[in-house]
Amino acid sequence: MSDKRRDERRPHGELLADVLAVLWQAGRPMTAQQVNAALGKGLARTTMATILTRLYEKGTLRRTPAGRGFAYEPVEDAAGLVAGRMRRELESEPRRDLVLKRFVSSLSEDDEETLRRLLLEAGDESGRRTR
After folding, report:
1. pTM
2. What are the strands of the beta sheet with 61-66, ordered from one edge?
3. 20-75, pLDDT tens digit by residue?
4. Based on the number of CB atoms within 10 Å of its own CB, is 63 exposed (0-12), middle (13-18) or buried (19 or more)?
5. For residue 131, what is the DSSP state?
6. Would you state the pLDDT for residue 122?
7. CB-CB contact of 72 with 56 (8 Å)
8. Is 65 helix (H, G, I), strand (E, B) or coil?
9. CA–CA separation, 99 vs 115, rounded Å?
């Protein structure tokens, strides 16, 4: 591959983020062709189909039959996707308490206050469910 061609390639994560952004914005299932058109990057049909299939296989998208192919939609919104990644990272670490301590100590005051409020709300909801 020439240096010029390599420079034109976008990071893989950026392309995945763009595809998810198109699907979140659409708010409805889309085919590979529709996602490709919305991106406006002129990717090969097979490239887009591969990206969507991989996201489906990872559990990020769900798909439904549409004509001779599939239409795809996100399983979760952006916040849910990030929360899932955070949970998986935490679950993979044997010293969860240390990870949480370091995470909390790195938060801004505003984020720390938001986390406190959310934990209180979650506790209140949990108490109501057990009554």
Report:
1. 0.69
2. 30-31, 69-74, 61-66
3. 999 999 999 999 999 999 999 999 989 999 999 999 999 999 999 999 999 999 99
4. middle
5. -
6. 87
7. yes
8. strand
9. 15
